[in-house]
Structure formats: structure tokens, C-alpha cells
């Protein structure tokens, strides 16, 4: 199935490595315009405001939503809010850029309702066991948080048929190159 390039949404289960793939794309593919989301969660060490996220207070996030500035937004893992700023994405698309959103499944569904001709890519783990290993291996979340993320991941895996394409994250470079190809660009990651 070929869709017109412009807006591509990458979603997939928790700990499948969406962040790693999008970091690789940020570093390797300047021709991809990677959307920077707003979030109410606190910055992790090394994360920069305006680069990895726009870090917002709950009140600031509320007013962005109230002003209609979010293309989509969701509460992820039952805790913090994350959302895509509509104006910057619209401007990038209008300028003919290849726009990539790395968002959760709830957000992907909202974008599908708003922009049905976008390209929707599901990032899948090679196996369930590998996904669990990655989740636990990250070591940044408590056991309760890990359990909650696994429950979310099971539900998210079932959403694969809603997507136009599936990319298996067996290797970050290979997966990123496949994603870039699906965006209509030439992979050069190797
Ligand atoms: P983290 O807190 O680990 O950076 O991200 C947690 C989750 O939030 C990831 O699954 C990521 O895809 C999702 N996420 C990041 N930005 C957005 C966004 O703008 N909208 C939505 N719906 N989810 C997002």
C-alpha cells in the first residue's frame, strides 16, 4: 500500500524500543522532522527541554489542551500526559517535510481519526520474552511500574492490525532504515 509521504506515526508496545529507534533517526536522518512532544513528566538525566520533550507543568499542559493546540494527547501508563503540538507539525507538513511522530497507541488512534491518510507504522518486538527483558533491563522503573507497563504492552500488541505496516525491532539500525524507507526516503544508516 503506498500513501503520500508527509506524516508518519510510529507506535508500538511499551519497551519495544520506540525511543531508541527515534533517537537513532534523530542522530542519523536530519531529513526526518521528528516531532518533539509536550509532557508533564519530569526530565530524566540527560534529557533537554525542547530536544527530547517540552517539559510542562500540569497547568501549562491543561491550557495547551484547552486552547486546542494538541493534535493528540494521552495519559500514558496511567500517570503522565504526553501530547503532540499541532502548530509545529502542521507547519512542518506545509513545508513539505517528512514528519515523524513517535507516540503511544491512544495517540496514534487520535491521529488516525484526524489525519486518516497519514502512514501508520507499528513497531513490534522480535518476541514477547525479548520485550520483557528490555523492560526489566532498563531498570529505571519500580516493579509496580514495570508490571503496569507489561499490562499496557499486552493490550498494545493486539493493536497491530490497525496499522498500515509492521516493523520488527530486531536491530535498531535495520528497523530505522525500514521505517525511513516506508516514509519514502532513502535509507543510508549503514
Ligand atoms: P517516556 O516517558 O519513556 O519518554 O515515554 C513514555 C511513552 O510516551 C512512550 O510510549 C511514548 O511513545 C509516549 N509518548 C511520547 N510522546 C507522546 C505524545 O506526544 N503523545 C502520545 N500519545 N504519546 C507519547
UniProtKB/TrEMBL annotation:
<dbReference type="InterPro" id="IPR017665">
    <property type="entry name" value="Guanylate_kinase"/>
</dbReference>
<comment type="similarity">
    <text>Belongs to the guanylate kinase family.</text>
</comment>
<dbReference type="InterPro" id="IPR020590">
    <property type="entry name" value="Guanylate_kinase_CS"/>
</dbReference>
<keyword id="KW-0808">Transferase</keyword>
<comment type="function">
    <text>Essential for recycling GMP and indirectly, cGMP.</text>
</comment>
<keyword id="KW-0067">ATP-binding</keyword>
<feature type="domain" description="Guanylate kinase-like">
    <location>
        <begin position="5"/>
        <end position="184"/>
    </location>
</feature>
<keyword id="KW-0547">Nucleotide-binding</keyword>
<dbReference type="GO" id="GO:0004385">
    <property type="term" value="F:GMP kinase activity"/>
</dbReference>
<keyword id="KW-0963">Cytoplasm</keyword>
<dbReference type="GO" id="GO:0005524">
    <property type="term" value="F:ATP binding"/>
</dbReference>
<dbReference type="Pfam" id="PF00625">
    <property type="entry name" value="Guanylate_kin"/>
</dbReference>
<dbReference type="InterPro" id="IPR008145">
    <property type="entry name" value="GK/Ca_channel_bsu"/>
</dbReference>
<keyword id="KW-0418">Kinase</keyword>
<dbReference type="InterPro" id="IPR027417">
    <property type="entry name" value="P-loop_NTPase"/>
</dbReference>
<dbReference type="GO" id="GO:0005829">
    <property type="term" value="C:cytosol"/>
</dbReference>
<protein>
    <recommendedName>
        <fullName>Guanylate kinase</fullName>
        <ecNumber>2.7.4.8</ecNumber>
    </recommendedName>
</protein>
<feature type="binding site">
    <location>
        <begin position="12"/>
        <end position="19"/>
    </location>
    <ligand>
        <name>ATP</name>
    </ligand>
</feature>
<dbReference type="InterPro" id="IPR008144">
    <property type="entry name" value="Guanylate_kin-like_dom"/>
</dbReference>
